[in-house]
């Protein structure tokens, strides 16, 4: 059995010696082709994919979301060729999302332009995805819709230091970031079972789509568009999944 496992590993390495295939948001490596680009992306053709267009939701008695975020030095800032993203690698960084008895630790957040989520057929100028993971590996994604309006100072910190160089993490000396300052005051939400919105599209994500948007300025939107003007996956079929609303 050990010999068989080694042979399988060597074959996989030979087939894909440099890691998973490159993917993009358009063209031959775009969303329509993700599932066939690499065996590890097969879930992209699944039946519980994200994002979705929320056209109907069942009102339910759902737990309030609690965000235990704190201000910390801005590091692990990366332009990863798909989005501008802030990673959290430090064990026990202490930034958590709680929903009832479920507790998830923040491991990264990033931005899409325009928004990936739709509500009643309407999207927003941008959105923020805050990604969390529980100790059992299940994930929770929080989608914060963003519309044009007043500038957001916390978002500006990221724009001011967004790297042109790709796939390299940067620590920004003297700059702290607090993701709580990019949340709306009203935390009512929609929730549904879904997936990561990019490869490998793993279907182990509970999504919380906040119903109240935040604002960033038109100039901030234009600034982000210098890096990514259309980094979204099209909405996916609901396939019988139930969307619930906290109000």
Description:
The protein has 247 residues and is α+β, with helices and mostly antiparallel strands. The chain folds into two domains: 1-44, no CATH class; 46-245, Alpha carbonic anhydrase (Carbonic Anhydrase II), CATH 3.10.200.10. Helices cover 14% and strands 29% of the residues. The protein has four helices and 16 strands. The protein has helices spanning 2-15, 34-37, 153-161, 218-225; strands at residues 53-54, 58-59, 65-68, 72-73, 77-79, 84-87, 96-99, 102-112, 118-119, 126-133, 139-148, 176-177, 189-194, 205-210, 214-216, 244-245. The strands form three sheets. Strands 2, 3, 5, 6, 7, 8, 10, 11, 13, 14, 15 and 16 form a twelve-stranded mixed beta sheet that branches. The longest helix has 14 residues, at 2-15. The termini are far apart.
Present the secondary structure layout:
Blueprint: H1 2-15, H2 34-37, E1 53-54, E2 58-59, E3 65-68, E4 72-73, E5 77-79, E6 84-87, E7 96-99, E8 102-112, E9 118-119, E10 126-133, E11 139-148, H3 153-161, E12 176-177, E13 189-194, E14 205-210, E15 214-216, H4 218-225, E16 244-245
Parallel strand pairs: 1-9, 2-16, 11-14, 11-15
Antiparallel strand pairs: 3-7, 4-12, 5-6, 6-8, 7-8, 8-10, 10-11, 13-14, 13-16
What attributes does this structure have?
Carbonic Anhydrase II, 4 helices, alpha+beta, 2 domains, disordered N terminus, twelve-stranded mixed sheet, 247 residues
């Amino acid at each position: 059995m050990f010999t068989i496992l080694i042979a399988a590993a060597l074959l996989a390495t030979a087939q894909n010696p440099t890691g998973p295939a490159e993917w993009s948001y358009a063209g031959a490596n775009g969303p329509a082709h993700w599932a066939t680009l690499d065996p590890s992306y097969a879930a992209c053709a699944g039946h519980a994919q994200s994002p979705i267009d929320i056209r109907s939701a069942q009102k339910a008695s759902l737990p309030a979301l609690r965000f235990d975020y704190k201000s910390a030095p801005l590091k692990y800032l990366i332009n990863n060729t798909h989005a501008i993203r802030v990673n959290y690698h430090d064990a026990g960084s202490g930034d958590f999302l709680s929903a009832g008895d479920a507790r998830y630790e923040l491991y990264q957040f990033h931005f899409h332009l325009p928004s990936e989520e739709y509500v009643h057929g309407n999207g927003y100028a941008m959105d923020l995805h805050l990604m969390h993971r529980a100790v059992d590996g299940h994930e929770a994604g929080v989608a914060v819709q963003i519309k044009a309006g007043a500038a957001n100072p916390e978002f500006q910190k990221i724009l001011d230091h967004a790297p042109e160089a790709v796939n390299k993490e940067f620590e920004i000396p003297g700059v702290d970031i607090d993701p709580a300052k990019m949340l709306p005051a009203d935390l009512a939400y929609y929730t549904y079972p879904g997936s990561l919105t990019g490869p490998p599209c793993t279907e182990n994500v509970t999504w919380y789509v906040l119903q109240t948007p935040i604002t960033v300025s038109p100039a901030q939107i234009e600034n982000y568009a210098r890096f990514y003007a259309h980094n979204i996956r099209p909405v996916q079929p609901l396939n019988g999944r139930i969307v619930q609303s906290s109000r």
